[in-house]
Design a protein that fits this description.
By secondary structure, this protein is an alpha+beta fold. It has five helices and seven strands. The strands form two sheets. A five-stranded antiparallel β-sheet has the order 5-2-4-3-7, covered by helices on one side. A two-stranded antiparallel sheet has the order 1-6.
């Protein structure tokens, strides 16, 4: 192990319990602690560039042609983006250990923090849609735009979320248009 890598490990926080011990990847169930959003390797690296510091735990394996983010269970359900797969309850994905062998192709692109390992699904959707050349649906991607909205101080705000609408009904729910969304972006 090189000095740079050992220094990074020395300051890393303890890892979540679902991280495999030892030096080999192990299959872990999706849909319990997280779901996995998977893209091709090249698209994933490009999406990582769009996400920047907004990305949380992320695995990469150039040999298997994948990049996978961890998101809150159910938060990416129903995504229909080209080249993107969402693995949820009942499915498994190989997860690398905290210190994989140097020869392992499956590695952590961004190591999971035990307190904050979910990537925001709205930001991830926006990034992978951009990379795929798909115009994002603003109803899916609405975000907090004021401090009151972000901190929950505005009781009438629905956080910009849109209720699910029945398919083929012609009904379109709009994001929250409360005044707290008009005071400037905080995110």
């Amino acid at each position: 192990m090189d000095a740079k890598r050992s220094t990074a490990r020395a300051v890393s926080p303890p890892f979540p319990a679902w991280i495999p011990s030892g030096h080999l990847a192990q299959p872990r169930p999706c849909g319990l602690a997280w779901d996995a959003v998977i893209t091709t390797y090249i698209d994933g690296i490009r999406a990582l560039g769009h996400l920047g510091l907004a990305s949380r735990a992320c695995m990469q394996d150039p040999e298997a042609d994948l990049v996978a983010w961890l998101v809150k269970p159910g938060s990416a359900e129903g995504w229909d983006l080209p080249g993107v797969r969402v693995l949820g309850r009942g499915e498994h994905i190989d997860v690398p250990p905290a210190e994989p062998l140097d020869t392992a192709t499956l590695q952590w692109a961004i190591e999971p923090d035990p307190e904050d390992y979910w990537t925001c699904p709205r930001q991830l959707h926006r990034a992978v849609a951009t990379v795929a050349g798909v115009k994002p649906d603003p109803r899916v991607l609405s975000t907090f735009t004021s401090l009151e909205c972000l901190t929950g101080e505005c009781e009438r705000c629905t956080k910009g979320e849109v209720a699910a609408t029945p398919p083929d009904t012609g009904v379109v729910e709009e994001p929250c248009a409360h005044l707290c969304h008009r005071w400037g972006a905080t995110r």
